[in-house]
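>> received
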Amino acid sequence: MVNGGTRHRKLFLTAFILLLSTFLFGCTNASDASKPKGEDNNMLVIAWPRDVGEMNPHVYNPSQLFAQSMVYEPLVSYQNGGELKPHLAESWEISDDGKEYTFHLRQDVKFSDGTNFNAEIVKKNFDAILNNVELHSWLGFITKIDRTEIIDENTIKLILTEPYYPTIQELAVVRPVRFLGEAGFPEDGDTAKGVVKPIGTGPWILEEHKADEYTIYKRNENYWGELPKVEKIKVKIIPDAETRVLAFEKGDIDLLYGEGVISIDAFKQLESTDNYKTSISEPVATRQLVINTKKAQLSDERVRHALHYGFNKEAMVNGITSGYEEKADRILPANLPYTKDIDVKSIGYDAEKAKKLLDEAGWTLPKGKTVREKDGQLLEIEMMYNSAESIQKVMAETLQSEWAAIGVKLNIVGVELTEQVQRFKDNKFDINFFSNYGAPYDPHTFLNIVASEGFGFNEAISAYPNKDELLKQMSEVPMTTDEELRQQLYSSILKSIQDQGAIIPISYLKKTAIYQKDITNFTFPANRDEHPFTGISIEHK
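>> returned
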C-alpha cells in the first residue's frame, strides 16, 4: 500500500494484533455454563471467551468478527485458494486503468426487516465509512476511494484515485465494508457513534443479547441465499478456558471452535476419548521468527542461516503442538493468493552446516568456551516472546537449548503482549515471534507492513543489499493491472525476503473445532474471520 493513512494503518494493525492475541489466550473469570432446560432442540450452542459486542458493521473492538459476519454480508466472498466469488454483487467489471469498479447487485436480496438491498443503501454505507476515513484507513482501498456513483437501482460504481488491485479482495473482509439496512442508521448517519439496530442481509438475525452472558441469533427465514439448517445459535460467554471445556464435557456446549478457544492439550485429551468429533483447518497463518538485521551480530546472512539450520524445526513443532501445527517452509502459507509456486531456498536441520557458517562469518568457538566470539564480542542474542503464549515460551526454550549446541547464547524474555508489540514497533528487539494475518488480508497486507516503517519488519530487512529494490517492487504490486506481472513481483519479493533469512518460518497455525457427535457438516470457512455455521446440522436421535 503506497499512499496516505500510514499512521492509522499502524494503529489499527497494532490493535488487530492485540485483539487477535487477546482472543487467543482468553481471560481468567469463569461464567455460568449451565444449559437451560427446554432449550430449542434445533439450537446450536457454542462458547466464546468474550461478549460479541455491539453489532455495528462499521466499527471494531469489542465487536467479534464471527458474530458480525452472521448478520452482515459483503459484495464479494473469499473462498478456498483465494478465489473471489460474487456475493451481494452478482458480477463486476474493472476498467482497463484499474481505477473504476462497477458492481451489479443481486436483485433478490432484502434486509432482515424486509427493506430492499440496492445501490442507494450501498452508497449510504460507503458514505458512512468514508465520513470516518481515518478510522478505516488501515484498509488500503479505503484511502484511495475518490467517490461512489449510483448508475441505476442495482448498479453502483466505485472510483479510485489510483489503481489498487487488492480492492476486490479487501471488499471480502468482515469489516468495515458490510451493509447496514436503513433502519439501523442513526439520524445523522454517523455509524461510528453507534447503530440503532443491527439490520443486515445475512442468514442470522440478533434475537436476544444479555451482555457478558449470552447472545441468541435466530435464522433469517427470508434469507436470499442458502438457508441455515439450524434455527438458532446461542453464544455463551465463558471467559475461562477450563470452564469452557467442562461445559462442553457436560454437554452444555455443542461446539468449541476457533484459535485458542481450547488449548492443544485439552483438544488432544478430548479427542483421545473418541466421544466427540474433531476438525482441523488448513493453515490460516505462519508462525515466524523475525530477526532484526540492524543488530550487528545478526546483520550477516550467514549467521541468520546458521540459526535456521541450527534447530530441528520438525521435531520442535511436532513435539510442542502434538502435530496439530505443521512445520512451515514458507513465510506465507501456499493456500493464499500468489504464494503457491515460490521457489525458496530449502533449509533443514543441519547442526554441522550451522557451525560451518558461523565459522565462515568469523564467529569462532575458543577452546574451553561454550559461546562463540568475534572481535572480543560474544554471540549473544535476545529473543522476545509473549509471556501469555505457552507455545511461544516452550519454542523459545527449545531454541535456547539447540542454539547453545552451536555456540550461540540465546537469552529469552517473556513480556506482556502490549510491550511485545511496542518493542517490535520501536525496533527494540533482536528476534521476535510474529504471525501474519491470513485470509483475506494476505499477501498484500503482509507486504504492506514489511514496506512500512515502524512495524519491525522494515527494520528486519535493513541489512538486505537489495532493500531499496524490494521496497520499490512492493509499491508496484498493488498498482499493477497485469496479472502475470503481479505474480512475478510477488514471487520475486517473497523469495528474496525469505532467502536472505530475516524471517524464519516456524509452523503453520490452524484452527481447531471439537463438537458433539450429533453435530454434522462442520467446515471451516476460507476467510479466517467468517462464521462457520451455515451448513451445520443437528441430528436428533
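>> The two ends are 54 Å apart (CA to CA).
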